[in-house]
Amino acid sequence: MMDSASPTEGSPSPAADSAAPAEGSPSPAENSPSPAEGSAAPAAGSPPPAGNPPPPAAGPPPPAAGSPSPVTTLSGPPALAPLLARGALLSPLKRPRADAGFPRTRLVLPGLRVDLARLAAYERACGFATGADALPVTYPHVLGFPAVMRLMSARRFPLPLLGLVHTSIDITRHTVLTATAAYELSVHVEGLAPHRRGTEASVVTRLREGTDLVWESRSTYLARHRTPALPPAAGRPGHTPAAPPAPPLPTRAEWRLAHDVGRRYGAASGDRNPIHLHPLTARLFGFPRAIAHGMWTVARCLAEHGTPDAAVVRAEFRAPVLLPGTVRYGAEGGSFELRGAGDRLHLSGEVGPYPARTGAA
């Protein structure tokens, strides 16, 4: 997946973020095999053969409203390579739609510890200071990426992993996260929703230290496909004309991005999606050159902007950043953005303090 760059951050470009977010990226419930395709079914209304039980239902019904989701406890972070391969192989078989079923399983990984060498590589790749005993606000996304990929590469996940576009991320950091603590990680698919360009999935990642919720995020991923034709917006009841584009924020820095930004971030985060690694592999997905990971653009902006200890971050991926290239970082107050040539908006976001609260959600 590009993040809008790693599923293509909101870009209208072709299925670019095909593979998976690695941020950097199998459970029995969501990966259970489906009935054999092509097997014969009894004629409608005919009784089952004597002595044989009725055929099983096509799949388990969704949990009743208010009932707890099934939980699968992992013994370690899933290996990304086989998950990405599985997701790629299953992608042509998926038929995305907003009312499709999806895996209700919540994956939980207890006792998770940070690899300090990988953390240092991530900090260098994104521009964060190294050596501090605190995780960058975006780093838990990297920790959760393999488990998210396990859910999204499953047979029962209805959106194809190839071409999936990371369109937005909301992060809440309740307190500073130390690099040496042990955490419990959990991920689940929150739901599907119709989008004017297809179907969007919401995926929630949470980190707990002991019983305290210390970090959580909600990412949206778009699968583009044909949608029912709508009347022109101007003719719809209650239509409000779109506001004109906001003017650029004051430029605070200009960054010249090297051709290997995607490879360095991919090595640090685990997200080795081919669209980020080399022009030749990027062209297979419709890009003229390799593109930067969307989550790298968020991390780089936040490294420059800074974040409170308890913080809320909202970012929307607008268009991919081609490598090599030059971008302008703009910021004013809690707003930040990344723009390219011709004032093209690649990323927009906001960051602010999160009021301390008692108890975990």
Annotation keywords:
361 residues; alpha+beta; eleven-stranded mixed β-sheet; disordered C terminus
Give an overview in words.
There is one protein chain. Strands 1-2-4-5-6-3-8-11-10-9-7 form an eleven-stranded mixed β-sheet, with helices on one face. The protein is globular. The chain has helices spanning 28-31, 80-90, 116-126, 139-152, 261-269, 279-283, 294-305, and strands spanning 71-73, 106-112, 165-173, 183-195, 198-209, 212-224, 251-257, 311-317, 325-332, 335-339, 345-353. Residues 4-60 and 356-361 have low confidence and may be disordered. It is 18% helix and 26% strand.
> Which percent bin holds the helix content?
10-25%
Strand order of the largest sheet: 1-2-4-5-6-3-8-11-10-9-7
* Main sheet overview: 11 strands, mixed
Order of helices and strands: HEHEHHEEEEEHHHEEEE
Overall 3D shape = globular
What percent of residues are in strands? 25-35%
Rg of Cα set: 21 Å
Write down the overall mean pLDDT.
83
How many extended strands? 11
End-to-end Cα distance, whole Å, is 29 Å
Number of helices: 7
Q: Could you name the ranges where pLDDT drops below 50 across 5 or more consecutive residues?
A: 4-60, 356-361
The computed structural class is alpha+beta
Brief overview, please?
The protein is 18% helix and 26% strand.
Topology of helices and strands:
Layout: H1 28-31, E1 71-73, H2 80-90, E2 106-112, H3 116-126, H4 139-152, E3 165-173, E4 183-195, E5 198-209, E6 212-224, E7 251-257, H5 261-269, H6 279-283, H7 294-305, E8 311-317, E9 325-332, E10 335-339, E11 345-353
Parallel strand pairs: 1-2
Antiparallel strand pairs: 2-4, 3-6, 3-8, 4-5, 5-6, 7-9, 8-11, 9-10, 10-11
